Amino acid sequence: xxxxxxxxxxxxxxxxxxxxxxxxxxxxxxxxxxxxxxxxxxxxxxxxxxxxxxxxxxxxxxxxxxxxxxxxxxxxxxxxxxxxxxxxxxxxxxxxxxxxxxxxxxxxxxxxxxxxxxxxxxxxxxxxxxxxxxxxxxxxxxxxxxxxxxxxxxxxxxxxxxxxxxxxxxxxxxxxxxxxxxxxxxxxxxxxxxxxxxxxxxxxxxxxxxxxxxxxxxxxxxxxxxxxxxxxxxxxxxxxxxxxxxxxxxxxxxxxxxxxxxxxxxxxxxxxxxxxxxxxxxxxxxxxxxxxxxxxxxxxxxxxxxxxxxxxxxxxxxxxxxxxx
Length: 325
What we know:
This is Bifunctional ligase/repressor BirA. The protein is α+β, with helices and mostly antiparallel strands. It has helices at about 5-15, 25-30, 35-45, 70-75, 95-105, 155-170, 230-235, 240-260, 265-275, and strands at about 50-55, 60-65, 85-90, 110-120, 135-145, 175-180, 180-185, 190-200, 205-215, 280-285, 290-300, 305, 315, 320-325.
């Protein structure tokens, strides 16, 4: 199915809110014959969509499959830019690497790179990320903010707030944020965020936010089962990945626009509200040293502030954080 026709068709069904749309109306919307509409409907059925056809009423979608391909993400997506262009790959080494590749070739802002499986998923500090097929959300979003590179680190925190709120709306579960880029439920990791740049000294060309989320896994490899969990494990039921992706994109677009227009302060307040470590004793392990103290907040640049036992406030730019006793 051609991409522009697919987008028009899925947007038409989305705007119908479950009501029937006549074949003639669909033909007018997408600019083709009713026979062509029928062929496009059959293409959707082959991709796993359950559609009802009633004579003199038309068509409506009853059920969308739990996939994360372009069709499933576009139907019902309420954004202006983010996710309007979807680059789907069934299996990829890393969505982050793929996003870098297509960004360098030129793509529109908001392009979403997503896969059902990563063979070399990676997190911060080049750590591996377990990314099994058909269970999680493995995606990267390409933004092109007209901002200097020093404002890039805040986007990891902006994404964290957006994801927390999206997860809470879809599942009723509110994750906690562990600085700088992890989301936890009951102390176990469900999400990692990786923000990378393509930039000159004074201008961001592309900012790529990678998100790895454990959604419908029922178990984990032995080496990570004590530190990782999934939304399905915590909720006790499977979650619609496509719906969650849509909500993440919608929330991220909202906070992205807020940041550009109002600055980081309102988002900073939300981040601190959701953070697991603020007000608690932590251990920050940097490359050179280990600092113990109380996490007292973050700066307007997203830098963690830690107050040690002598009352000295340290600004932590990069470190592994462990909650103290």
